[in-house]
TrEMBL record:
Domain Peptidase M28 residues, every copy: 109-310
Annotated SUPFAM superfamilies: Fibronectin type III, Zn-dependent exopeptidases
Localization in the cell: Secreted
Residues passing through the membrane, by range: none
Name assigned to this protein: Zn-dependent M28 family amino/carboxypeptidase
Listed GO biological process terms: proteolysis
Gene3D superfamilies assigned to the protein according to its UniProt record, in alphabetical order: Immunoglobulins, Zn peptidases
Entry keywords, A to Z: Carboxypeptidase, Hydrolase, Metalloprotease, Protease, Secreted
């Protein structure tokens, strides 16, 4: 009998700390390709969603599009008993602020907040861009359906809200449609500033920009590959932090990189058929997306997008030229693939929102010793902690040890010089915080 009880207890412990939760599979199965197709179609049918386009019409332009998005978030809120706080966040941009602002404009974001039950002032964000464009970024009248760029990301964000609104979370989740991306990341700048003004603690942002194309201009067709872009270290790091990296490491271990690794791990755990590709770069070469303003403000932020782009379908006037169809139209969107990437977002939002906060302070020591020593700050709501480590050349956290509800631990026999380390907090439901790279040295 004692042996049976021990085995049951052991199995429960293994399940608790293996990052498996049956609700995550329910979330994956609840994401609907049909609803995503319907929403992408509606967005594309507004004709153009250029940031400077019509705001009066009920059927055409960015004004009609954002009102519809807000109404859909409000319907979701009604269905969950008012669980979403839906509102506009806006900033006025004057003509000439940059070359793409050819007349005064209100840049308006649509925000839906699902408040957490335990840590309501901590927010994990999923975003999609509302706006679209053709070849000329100042052309705000021509048809610009933006079916993939970025009705796909916007529809995915709306669908994630529908699915996750059925659950309660310890942390808050923000679902948002952001405007002004094509004119200079204005919406992201405005929302990041709004978050600072409100004193929100931002865990991170999952920026979804183009999640619907599987046929690349490079000839590759894949419905399982996707990219996770993340910058190595925060642009807000201090000179003291930069100098410390020369001696202690951390060149590829900033907060955005830890968010990217979290998404990679969660995806491989629950959706092993997918191939998340960790791209060690802020964004595509020389380009930018709406996670960048959050990075600039010191928050973790990543871009999730398709792996194989087709440039004939981005930022193009709709036309046929030399037998090639140009334009970002509905026929090029793979809705089943958009469903998969929406599910990737939804399960990571849920996992993070169900997890306790990460330790604020992680100390490491063990110089010229055959062991690695750690101390970390206690986390409210954590029932234990995990130490992660990896080879210095590995992109992912490959080794871990659950060490219980302690705030210091020594890994005997592990030489500190040969590995990188991090600490995550574990909640009673088994969900883990993001990994924290050591930020202090034990003397």
């Amino acid at each position: 009998m004692k042996k049976t009880l021990f085995l049951i207890s052991l199995l429960a412990t293994v399940n608790l700390f293996s990052q498996t939760d049956s609700r995550i599979y329910d979330i994956i199965n609840s994401v609907s390709a049909d609803r995503i197709e319907k929403d992408i179609t509606t967005l594309a049918n507004f004709g153009t969603r250029h940031t400077l386009s019509d705001t009066i019409s009920e059927t055409r332009g960015i004004g009609a599009a954002r009102r519809w998005i807000k109404s859909e978030f409000e319907k979701t809120s009604t269905d969950c008993g008012g669980c979403l706080d839906v509102f506009y966040q806006k900033d006025f941009i004057k003509k000439g602020d940059n070359a793409r602002i050819v007349h005064d404009v209100w840049v308006v974001n649509v925000v839906a907040v699902q408040h957490g039950t335990k840590y309501p002032n901590r927010f994990i964000i999923m975003s999609g861009d509302i706006d679209s464009r053709v070849s000329d970024p100042t052309n705000f009248t021509s048809d610009s359906p933006g079916a993939n760029d970025n009705a796909s990301g916007m529809a995915g964000t709306m669908e994630a809200a529908r699915v996750l609104s059925k659950y309660k979370f310890e942390n808050s989740i923000i679902y948002t449609g952001i405007s002004g991306e094509e004119q200079g990341l204005y919406g992201g700048k405005g929302l990041a500033a709004y978050a600072k003004e409100k004193g929100w603690e931002i865990i991170g942002i999952l920026n979804n920009d183009m999640i619907g194309n599987i046929k690349g201009v490079d000839g590759i067709v894949s419905n399982v590959d996707f990219r996770i872009f993340s910058e190595p270290v925060p642009p807000t790091e201090t000179e003291q932090e930069r100098r410390a990296r020369r001696f202690y490491g951390g060149e590829v271990d900033g907060i955005s990189r830890q968010l990217a690794r979290y998404v990679h791990k969660t995806t491989k755990t629950y959706m092993p058929e997918m191939n998340p590709m960790l791209i060690y770069r802020l964004d595509r070469f020389g380009r930018g997306g709406h996670h960048r303003p959050f990075n600039d403000a010191g928050h973790a932020g990543i871009r999730i997008m398709e792996a194989h782009e087709n440039y004939t379908q981005q930022h193009q006037d709709i036309r046929v030229e030399d037998g090639i169809e140009y334009g970002d139209v509905l026929k090029h969107v793979n809705f089943a693939y958009a469903k998969k990437l929406t599910a990737v977002n939804a399960i990571n939002l849920a996992s993070i929102a169900w997890a306790p906060p990460a330790p604020k302070e992680v100390k490491i020591g063990g110089i010229v010793e055959p062991s690695a020593k750690f101390e970390w700050s206690k986390v409210d709501g954590a029932i234990g902690y995990k130490i992660y480590w990896r080879d210095t050349t590995s992109p992912t956290w490959d080794n871990s040890r659950y060490v219980g509800n302690v705030t210091e631990y020594t890994l005997d026999g592990i030489v500190i010089d040969n590995f990188f380390f991090g600490i995550a907090a574990v909640g009673e439901n088994g969900h883990e915080s993001l990994v924290v790279f050591p930020n202090k040295i034990l003397r």
